[in-house]
Amino acid sequence: MSDYSDLIKSLKAAAGGFADIAKDLAGAAGDKARDLAGGAGEKAKALARLAKLTMELSSERDSLNEAYAEVGKLYFETADKTDPGEMYVRAFDRVMLSLAAIERMETELTELRAALNEGAAEDADFEDVVSAAEEGIEVEITEDKTEE
Questions:
Q1: Are 95 and 76 in contact (CB under 8 A)?
Q2: What backbone phi and psi angles, to 5 degrees, belong to 125?
Q3: Between 51 and 77, where is the model more confident?
Q4: 31 shares its domain with 54
Q5: Is residue 87 part of a domain?
Q6: Ramachandran sector of residue 61 (left: φ over 0; alpha: ψ -120 to 50; beta: rest)
Q7: 68-76 mean pLDDT
Q8: 67, 105, 128, 148: which one has the fewest Cβ atoms less than 10 Å from its Cβ?
Q9: For residues 47 and 41, what is the distance between their CA atoms, to the nearest angstrom?
Q10: pLDDT winner (highest mean) among 44-48, 91-95, 123-127, 143-147
Q11: Domain of residue 92, residue span
């Protein structure tokens, strides 16, 4: 019976040793997880700040470009168009060409809208519209023979 008691005692001691080892490992793992979580928290904060700064920088650049455009527009409106100055000639030419193109497009749009509104006032016959749309279209109908 003493062998049995000794065996039980040695198993308990071994189990206690394993339990102590498991506790130490769990504690070490917990400490490592806390360290990693702290590092991850700092990284997350840094990434959030990076994203925020990037958005703010983009917004500020847009604001700067709008201010430049406003300054340029004010100068263009007040400058002598026949002699804007040597360094502004190309920019003035681009603006003048764009303004002329915009005016042509707006005129064409106005004319197209007027033509469409004028045509809408007339009652169109469905058959006439379909016939006009189908003009020049050929349809060939073929029938496949089914095997029975």
A1: yes
A2: -80, 135
A3: 77
A4: yes
A5: yes
A6: alpha
A7: 87
A8: 148
A9: 10
A10: 91-95
A11: 80-121
> Do residues 2 and 73 share a domain?
yes
| 58 and 9 in a common domain | yes
Contact 45, 53 (CB under 8 A): no
Question: Residue 5 corresponds to which amino acid?
Answer: S
- First-to-last CA distance in the chain? 93
Same domain, 107 and 56: no
How far is residue 142's CA from residue 148's CA, in Å, rounded to a whole number? 19
List, in sequence order, the alpha helices (H) in the chain: 2-78, 89-121, 126-134
Contact 92, 81 (CB under 8 A): yes
Contact predicate 76/92, CB 8 Å = yes
Q: Does 25 reside within a domain?
A: yes
- Percentage of the chain modeled with pLDDT above 70: 67
pLDDT(74) > 70: yes
